Amino acid sequence: MGQKALAPLVFSRSATEGFKVPESWQYGSCVLTIDVEGADVYETSTFAAVTKRAFALMVQCVINEPHLGGRSFVGDHDGLEVLVFGVERGREC
């Protein structure tokens, strides 16, 4: 994993500080979303922590039946939500 993934970063809904959330990525039928709980919430974490938690959710909640997905939190104060869920291929979200 690269140095950028390991560097602490502020996640917030503010356009002026750190990484702006909410943000979503879709690959095939799997969706990963990260967000903070409110407009005034700032959370420090790393993309490595987000990736690790998202992978654990995929293994635990998406790969196995009933394929519903999962939600967890990372960061210094567990304020950055990591949400993983599946969508039917060929359909818009």
Structure classification: alpha+beta
How do the SSEs run, as a string of H and E? Answer: HEEEEEHEE
Strand proportion, as a percent range, falls in 35-45%
DSSP summary: helix tally: 2
Mean pLDDT: 87
Task: Return Rg in Å.
Answer: 14 Å
User: Major sheet: order of its strands?
Assistant: 3-4-7-6
Instruction: List low-confidence stretches.
Output: none
**Biggest sheet, in brief?**
4 strands, antiparallel
- Percent of residues in helices comes to 10-25%
For the termini, the CA-CA separation is 30 Å
Number of strands: 7
- Shape by Cα distribution: globular
Give the total of domains. Answer: 1
Descriptive account of the structure:
The structure is a single chain. With 93 residues, this protein is of the alpha+beta class. The protein has one domain (3-86). It is built from two helices and seven strands. The strands form two sheets. It has a four-stranded antiparallel sheet with strand order 3-4-7-6. A three-stranded mixed sheet has the order 2-1-5. β3 and β4 form a beta hairpin. The longest helix has 16 residues, at 47-62. The radius of gyration is 14 Å and the shape is globular. It starts with a helix and ends in a 7-residue tail after the last strand. 18% of the residues are buried.
